[in-house]
Amino acid sequence: MRRSENNDQAASKLGSRLDDNLTQLRSLYQDCFDVVFHEFRYGKSVRAALVYIAGLSNIDEINRMILQSAGKTEPPEKGSGIDAYRPIVPVSSTHPVSTPNDVVKEVSDGNPVLLVDGETGGLAVALASWDQRSVQEPEAEAVVRGPREGFIETLQVNTAMLRRKLKTPSLKMRTMTIGKFSQTQVVIAYLDGVADPGLLSEMEQRLKRIQIDGILETGYIQEMIEDNPMSPFPLLQTTERPDIAAAHLLEGRIVLLVEGTPLTLIAPVSFFSFLQSAEDYYQSFYFGTAIRWLRYLFTLIALIGPSLYVAIITFHQEMIPTTLLLSMAKSRELIPFPALVEALLMEVTFEALREAGVRLPKQVGAAVSIVGALVIGQAAISAGLVSSPMVMVVAVTGIASFMIPHYTMGIAIRIIRFPMMLLAGFLGFYGLILGTLFLLTHLFSLRSFGVPYMAPVATTEKTGLKDVLVRAPLWNMRIRPHFTGRWNKYRQQPGSSYQVRRRGGPK
Amino acid sequence: MPMIEKGKISSLQLGLAMYLMIGATSTLIVPAISAKQAKQDMWISPIWGALWGILCIFLAWKLERLYPRSTFVEYSERIVGKVAGKAISFVFLFFLLLVIGSIIREYEEFIILAFLPNTPMAVVVAGIVMASSFAVRSGLEVLVRFAVLFAPLFGLLLAFIFLFLLPDLDWQNVRPVLGYGVMPSIKGAIEPIAWFIEFFAIAFLLPCLRNRKSGLRAGLGAVLAMLATMVLAHLTCLLLFGDLTADLMFPVFSASRFISIADFFSHVESIVATLWLLGGFVQISMWQYALTIGTAQWLKLTDYRPIVFPLGFLVIAFAKWVAPNFQDMLAFFLTTGPVFSLLCLVLIPAALLFIALIRKSFGSGN
């Protein structure tokens, strides 16, 4: 009942009587102690009021720019319209609002709304300011070489950071609001003339279809718009680094920035972009290539390391060199469990330790790691619960899963490791093959906004392999990736790469 | 009739898919069988086989030229009429079922020998058929991606087996070359021929080719690559085992057990079997795809995905029914098998092409 009443009021227009307007707004903001209705006078006679939310607007500025000067200023003639007050308010940006709905929107954004008796509508004053985190180095995506700044929770700071990387009017930022209650602002950033227009409209459509009460993190949006919602793999990439976001924009992808979270979403992505780090491109290409291969190897270990060990120990002992086999047999002699149980035990414990380490307060975290290292590493072996090769395998697997530069992909790989272990424990290599085949079938059929997830592997695009098999020298990667960048093929002047190679720089 | 398969493939994907569709088993058991007849000339037998492969590629290509964008099941009805066409297609689909059954049976014996000596057959078969059904259900585009990924691995695997065995190979084993005339190598070619004429299965993939002109070249490329692989596999067995090859079940795999380099790189048969199985997976799923899409067209379904798993169950059963034991299956490969293959993969298509050409030239064809 009350809701519909409120809605009716909100949809109507603001009148010219200040008292009516205030009553209307006060009933909308009933029981909202943080909303301030400050009444004052312009000159001696004209009554006015300022509506704002404490903490969202800059009180100092309000005092200085509006309230202090109000008493001394001679107001315009009554009935000359709210626009006549714009010159009187010495703030860079003001704009008129006409309905209580607009007032609510502006006030929620932190812009105080000025209402004047005798004038229709109100004036929103851009004095929004709230406490925000300063720009810091993104902890989850650290680099040795490369910019240290990361996105923060404030949308406008983030868009500014992006704009600073790509100073061109071609960088477009469309905005939309999602979430019935949260009214979260979402910005779709893309490079005009590089990004696929079809991709853009698809993205807008998918975003429009989201009907939800609130968006608190990009994860909400990600789960709602992914091509295959049941897949354990992330089909959109997140980053809190402006340089990564800009690099993806340059390759024709779309970046979604969401108010209230430092994480942005990138679409479409391929599996391999989760195994690439920004630094691959900042360091020399020999190093970039080597690091990439190391990462592929350890991603594979993170996925099937324990299962490989279980399969070999249980079914294919002949593969182990004899001397090693003997020492392994000795260490396993007193272990009461089969290798599969041992592996599951250790892996689950490891995952638990890690999760505990992430969530615990920092002071306690150190204790957990000590307990973990001692209990798992030493005590478990001397107690005869697990064998020492197993501990080594689990440790290497743990390190391997930290090698994956993107956390979301790391999680997916960690989860899939467990069914793989079961298959390997029951069917040995055969089970491992079956598991791999199921996994690959799934990966091959996945798409991220229509782009094959495994691109460029086993697709018709061959130039893309330059950025997957190796990290080719920058001067050699002349064209953008086929699936996202074919609308604007060349990223370097044709012919310039030849000159760089021959003479070290275009003339 | 609109095409059921929406995916499109490139000529490279087609070629590699065809290569694995024939290749993975041809190197698995064929050397043993051709060694029985051809003895030291066994490596020549695949060359006779390849001629038949080229013939079959040509048959399939020509038929698809006459009836663009349609598979065997579709054009057989248009060539000889509805009833006769349905009957021919039924025989052909039944033949496909038999082929898949025997392919899976070969792998099942192989896996049990290589990996899991104590595991019941049903578990092994059900596992691989589930994986392949899952892949078939995902569509042709997914299948050919597997082919592109695994075909080079498979080719390299055989090349490496040969290279790593170089110290153990005895080149005297090939002599006397054609010492008893051409006949032994031709007799020994029965099995390679039976495998090479399976290249007619390209008839189910040609309609999905993005660029139709390149189909013939891709098919012939696959035949030549297959020929090279088979000759290499035959040579490996011949040079290592000599006449013994005929008594081995999986001669190339047995050969891989002899790999030992610096006492460290040895006992690699599990890795070899793993890679082999990856190729075998593509082979099984490609054939299962042909069966599924053919059946769907035969029944005039609009989507083939609902029948993937039911057909998968049938395939599991056929893997059991195909022969009471492995020895019987090898006997089948040497007696009835090639005849049935020849009928379905060469004679029927040739007859169809003949009728189609006549109908076209007299202007009554549609």
TrEMBL record, chain A:
Ranges that cross the membrane: 254-275, 296-315, 365-385, 391-409, 421-444
Keyword flag Transmembrane helix: yes
Gene Ontology cellular component list: membrane
Domain of life the protein comes from: Bacteria
The keyword Transmembrane helix is assigned to this record: yes
InterPro entries: Spore_Ger (IPR004995), UPF0353/GerABKA_families (IPR050768)
Any one of the GO BP annotations: spore germination
Keyword tags: Membrane, Transmembrane, Transmembrane helix
Similarity-based family: Belongs to the GerABKA family.
Name of the protein: Spore germination protein
Phylogenetic lineage: Bacteria, Bacillati, Bacillota, Bacilli, Bacillales
Automatic annotation (TrEMBL), chain B:
UniProt subcellular location: Membrane
Gene Ontology CC entries for this record: membrane
Topology term for the membrane: Multi-pass membrane protein
GO terms classed as biological process: spore germination
InterPro entries named among the record's database cross-references: Spore_GerAB
Major location (coarse): membrane
Keywords: Germination, Membrane, Transmembrane, Transmembrane helix, Transport
Segments crossing the lipid bilayer: 12-33, 45-63, 83-104, 110-131, 143-166, 186-206, 218-241, 271-292, 304-323, 329-358
Family: Belongs to the amino acid-polyamine-organocation (APC) superfamily. Spore germination protein (SGP) (TC 2.A.3.9) family.
Protein name per Swiss-Prot or TrEMBL: Endospore germination permease
